[in-house]
Design a protein that fits this description.
three-stranded antiparallel beta sheet; single chain; Rossmann fold; seven-stranded mixed beta sheet; binds S-adenosylmethionine; alpha/beta
């Protein structure tokens, strides 16, 4: 099978406003830090072995790996260049952190059953992937399988108070926290540059 060529990946700093651009899209911006930290802290209240999808700027990855409760934190990243940029900015990484290369929709089938206490899920996906019902129908039961009983799945915040269909049918208990946010004036991926973000925590009962 032909490999999709890697998109152009750039770390842009404009007057202190930091953007990770992937294929010309704003994949991540540093104003999200407090939301990433709040999500990471929520995750770390649920155990000691964690897994994360999407390295980005590594804000959540470092916060999880540096939490005193954390024994291991594995982060899956699709693009080598994202990892290279992260390692350049952070030459010394916590011993709890390991970074793996791969695509979540392939790797999720390889996760060991009941091996993690929590997954933070923050890949930047194309709209066609979000809409692919069959893909989610196959992937999400694998996430649940990988979680230990009482473990949690925390996806990146939503700027609408809605539960995504991709996740909701796979869990019975959900905890939601509302956090105000202020994005950059140049942010293209939020509804307005200020508002409320909803961090959702899905429990494996
Ligand atoms: C929004 S960023 C993650 C931000 C991160 N939480 C932080 O605090 O900086 C999304 C990342 O997910 C990666 N990604 C996109 N699709 C992926 C996939 N299918 N599997 C693994 N990583 C993926 C992107 O390359 C990008 O680095």
């Amino acid at each position: 099978m032909e490999k999709t060529p890697a998109p152009e990946i750039e770390l842009i700093d404009r007057d202190g406003e930091v953007t990770l651009s992937i294929g010309g899209e704003q994949a991540m911006q540093a104003w999200e830090r407090d939301l990433m930290w709040a999500s990471a802290d929520m995750l770390c209240r649920h155990g000691k072995d964690f897994y994360e999808v999407g390295l980005g700027l590594g804000l959540s990855a470092l916060r999880i790996a540096e939490n005193p409760a954390t024994r291991s934190h594995r982060v899956l990243e699709l693009f080598g260049e994202v990892e290279d940029l992260f390692r350049q900015s952070h030459p010394k990484l916590p011993g709890t952190l390991s970074i793996e290369r791969g695509n979540f929709f392939e790797r999720v089938f390889e996760l060991e059953s009941e091996s993690i206490d929590g997954m933070f899920f923050d890949p930047a996906l194309d709209m066609e992937v979000w809409k692919d019902e069959e893909l989610w129908r196959r992937a999400m039961p694998e996430v649940v399988r990988a979680l230990r009983p009482g473990g949690v799945f925390i996806p990146f915040f939503s700027t609408k108070p809605e539960l995504r269909w991709q996740y909701v049918q796979h869990f019975r208990t959900i905890h939601v926290e509302r956090h105000p946010y202020t994005a950059y004036d140049t942010t293209e991926y939020t509804y307005g540059t200020t508002g409320d973000a909803y961090i959702q925590c899905f429990y494996k009962d």
